[in-house]
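Dear colleagues,

For the upcoming journal club I promised to circulate an example of a predicted protein-ligand complex. I picked one with S-adenosylmethionine because it came up in last month's discussion. The inputs are reproduced below in full, followed by the predicted structure.
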Amino acid sequence: MALTETDEALWFQEDLYADIAYGFRVTAILHREKSAFQEILVLESPALGKVLVLDGVVQCAQRDEAIYHEMLAHSGIFLRLAAAPPPVAGLNVLVVGGGDGGIARECLKHAGVAQVTVVDIDPRVRETVLAHYPELPAGAYADPRLAAVDVDAAGFVRQHRASFDLIVADTTDPVGIALPLFGRDFVADCFAALKEGGAFVRHAGSLLLQTDEFVRTRDDVAAVFGTQRTRTGLLATCTYLGGWFTWIAAVKNAAYPEGDAALRVLFEQAAPDVRWYSPELQAASQVLPRFVAEK
Ligand code: SAM
């Protein structure tokens, strides 16, 4: 049970792990439903602001969602721009999952982005944030450059070849409906769906609590894109339990840009309105602690 009453207070406890949990006090349940795919909750928390929860697992909270969304979206865009010349028609971005609109919102801060396609299997996630947590997409769904497609992203990616400049996989964890969005076959389908020089970014769980999942995901991406064209990154939030949280980035058939020099030039040109992301942070976050770098 994710929501419990104690001492006349309402508390939420995350259900992701069998042996460890974290929780926060809730002052209001803004929305609760069982969609065709998952249980959707929007909570109000004094510590975290509005919180989106799917099947008992926290997805985004007002307090710190920008850390995760900015790091994945801007790292992906600047990686793509540093790896190869920009397409004349502008960047074509695919968001796998991401129906909450946070990744799309960040991508759309770039004038050089021509199109963002958000492929989320569950339209109720989008409809719920628009009704109960509109600060999260923050107008992204009203942007004419955004297209929302309500299908299983695994099939969608398989149907596209050499179509996208950037793919950001912003999925729920590798169970149930999101399972087809993990594994080497899915990474290979994303590779095929990217244009030459295209970039791929995905989250890969908690470094300490999901070490095996992180190593497996990194190895899947490296096997498809090549070890020299794959990097891992770290970020930390207060809403994702488990200390350092990981992301993985790779480029298709182009050299992975080293350091922050090229990223800094591109960042100054694009000048997106950001609170957390910086090119220096992107480059610095790509250093792994020894215990896992050697795995
Ligand atoms: N940032 C989040 C996190 O890791 O905590 C993920 C955010 S986003 C809400 C995840 C989305 O993936 C959900 O809206 C869910 O509906 C979508 N999703 C899960 N499986 C999917 C699939 N097979 N195809 C498309 N979308 C999927």
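Two points we might discuss: The chain has two domains: 3-61, 65-293. The chain has a mean pLDDT of 96.

See you all on Thursday,
B. R.
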